[in-house]
Predict the structure.
Amino acid sequence: MGTRTAIVGVGQTHHTSKRKDVNGQELISEAVKRALEDAALSLNDIDAIVIGNMDHFEAINNVDGWSVDGSGAFMKPIMKVTTGGSTGGTLGSCAYYHVASGLFDVVMAIGWEKNSESDTQAAISTCADPIVERDFFGGAIGPNAAEYAMYMKQFGAVQEDAALVAVRDHNNALRNPHAHLRKFITVEDVMKSPVLCWPIKLLDSCPRSDGACAVIYASESRAPKITARSAWVHATAVSHDYVYFGDYDWEMMPTLQATVDRVYQRAGITNPLKDVDVMELYLPFSTCGVVWMDHMRMCGAGEAPKLIRKGVFDMNGELPINPSGGVLSTNPIGATGLIRIAEAALQVMGKAEERQVSDVKTAMATAFGSCYWFEATVLRSAKP
């Protein structure tokens, strides 16, 4: 396992569709300053930095060097990490392993995106084969629309099941001052919103946000000196794959299943509904909040709609999911997975304010990228 490692500080910007008042470095700096303030540290206390975004979106390839004025990495080791939509989760894992390896005592992970200065859909479309796939699978929406269409046909789920997920996450965001979209919605609102790619509608879909997030990891020797209540990393796991979309096993989702199976085993989780107190999941579309519950071992195949209709994943349910509002409310893509880790850490540390779930001892965060890549982190209030 190496050196026991904890999250000791988090910071994020107030996310929105366009931050015309700052450039990328200044946006990054906001998150860095807030994380340092949260942990009562200075840049002098940070041994190393890992940073990432969807670099081809903004056409900035050497973000590690380009961002130094914002990250504060001058004369410090800094590493760039980018793994598509799952970049934020990868950043968290990378910072964790930098500390757990014993190489550094305090490492800061930074994720960011200025989507207002990029063409997200055009960039993502390049992952689909131009001859046999791009007409339907180009961009982020097509594959997930196909996934839910197949799920509805196979198990009898309906569009309203996904709409319940959209309502849950959007309305949870009302409690989160950092969230991009903060508007009360109903199932009727979702069903009446414009169709983007059937069955996914506008309110089923995540936004494109400008924002940044920073998370500080510290070794066992340093963490207690920084904060009295840390979020200890108990396990991380990742599964990446690349396939033609038409060849993917949509009914099994092997990369998601492999990821959660590994992280559950490493963290000693046998029943996620009972063993985890809160989850911050990377759900880019409300439909994912239905289909992926099966593959995350929450229930048997096709049983997720029943749990959703019963409110099992609501704020007052058995396993609250996305108290922050999740990706459906906030999506600065390079930071999105790291925000999930940050929000899970806040829950464990008891610092989530109005979105706090009571008595959180175990929290889980995930990250997702196309083709399909998944990452997961389990945090606890007790040391591993």
